[in-house]
Amino acid sequence: xxxxxxxxxxxxxLFTLHCYAEEPPAVITSDSLxxxxxxxxxxxxxxxxxxxxNATINSKKMRYNEKTATVFAEGDVVYDTSDxxxxxxxxxxNLDTKQGIFYNSEIFSKTDNLHISGTKIEKQGEKKYxxxxxxxxxxxxxxxxxxxxxxxxxxxxxDRLKAKDVTFNVRGLPVMYxxxxxxxxxxxRKTGFxxxxxxxxxxxxxxxxxxxxxxxxxxxxxxxxxxxxxKIGIGKGxxxxxxxxxxxxxxxxxxxxxxxxxxxxxxxxxxxxxKRSSDGISAYINLNYLNEKRFYRDYSIFxxxxxxxxxxxxxxxSLPMDDSHFYIMSRYLIxxxxxxxxxxxxxxxxxxxxxxNPYKIGPVIFSLTSSASNLWRKEGVYGQxxxxxxxxxxxxxxxxxxxxxxxxRETAYSLHKNELEGFKKSVQRETFDYNITASxxxxxxxxxxxxxxxxxxxxTFIPWIKKDKINLPLFDSTENYSKQASGNLSITNRILDSLxxxxxxxxxxxxxxxxxxxxxxxxxxxxxxxxxxxxxxxIAYNSYSGRIExxxxxxxxxxxxxxxxxxxxxxxxxNRMFYNIDIQYTHPKNLSTALKLWYDAKGGGxxxxxxxxxxxxxxxxxxxxxxxxxADEINKKPSDLTVFMTINLLGLGSLSxxx
Length: 659
Description:
- There is one protein chain.
- The chain is mainly β.
- Among the domains are: 5-98, lipopolysaccharide transport protein A fold (Sandwich); 341-460 and 471-484.
- It is built from three helices and 42 strands.
């Protein structure tokens, strides 16, 4: 027998003092129902179900107090909403206040995949719960791979968990204890402590990092960082981020570390701010500063920072127009190489420029680049430079395409500190460059593939310039603009099949009539294979010395779960030869490894090695990062071996440590 009791009209007319007029109606269904008029209690037995809005309560037996709107349920109690599912043996729950007590129960948060169990759970609000004793995990197994157990636990679904006397358990065995824990369970940004990092390295000993996140507002936040090194000292960091309407955003970072072993005070500063606009003024600034050049090499775990040569700061303001744009920019470089002299590095402080985008005028295309630069450095020649370069381009032809361009160039210099190095105070250089190139494509189709040959023949002319107008300090590539009467011949072969291009081979060489001793340039040969291996390489062969001067090659392949990348860089003139090796392997049982090597074949040996091992399960993962840096004999730095371990607990951030 199924009895439906509609409580909305009668219930709210009797209890208007509770002010719950906006609550949805509650509907109870059961196999049998009894009502006691003296106590105003309904007793429902068998397949009892209460529905109110998106929430339902199921049980074997239930008593409902009409006066207090309280439900007393027992036997396989299930409280279910769109966010959570709560199972209990018995429960006492108020339909108006949404508060109650559930005994011997378990909560499952559907959005966060959280399982929380306890002998007594108090539902104190829509998403707030309190536990005398609780166990929390994101593992689905009956015996979870990990869980936190503690007392006086305070949980807000989608926000955070707080508890006292907490043990971290692995397969039911306690492995770690803390008197207090605060764990984020976030669906949005919240103020609070982030996961700390604990570690140890050979040169820095023990360290501890504790960040604190401050959600200032919806569009602004800040992170405070405290680093403690047992051997070195204390480091302090602050990061501030923001985003505003109008495509405005920025990030600013300031860090200080006082190294008591060396007495040095280390400062790092990074600032980035950008305002983007398609029809108005756009601007960005990216400032980077270090007062100790070895900071990244000695402290960073990121390879791209450890091998960085220059630390660059830039800023630019750009004003777009219909077919052109105007800009003002500055660039400042810090040379991070040991023993380098920043005073000799050329800085652009500032540069103003005007660029006219390619614009078709009849059969020709007009474009223009121009700039006025203040090229400054503390030591050596510096000065100001004005460079104007308009250009006309023209294309015609079908089977043979003829392309040509004519560029005019006016460059003027005003130099300072020029006398000691033999440069004039002012130099003005007027010249032009002309290029004409004929290119074609010959295609031959076979049964299984297509062969394409693309020959190209070009000629470039830059007239002779008086010696006193080319005797200039080298600021950048603009000063390399010199006389040229050269022809260039190149041939490219392409082989294509139904899947696309899989083989390319090209040869090119030029002849400069102005060069009387060695008019031929090195022969350049480049090739690539797309399948099954990805191979790319190029060499430069000097016919006069009979030697190969440069070799660059890369190989990559993927075979099921293994990927391999090899790279080689060889320069005979600078006597450099480096190898890069990157191997990655993914095991079918959630295991992954990656090995990255950087090897100097010209005496430096193995310069950088990083091994990463990761293991990921349904609710947890662990990652080991092992990094080795060799000894630096020049700076008297010993070798360093660091092992980082990160434990990722699904839904609770990460627990990090190192040795």
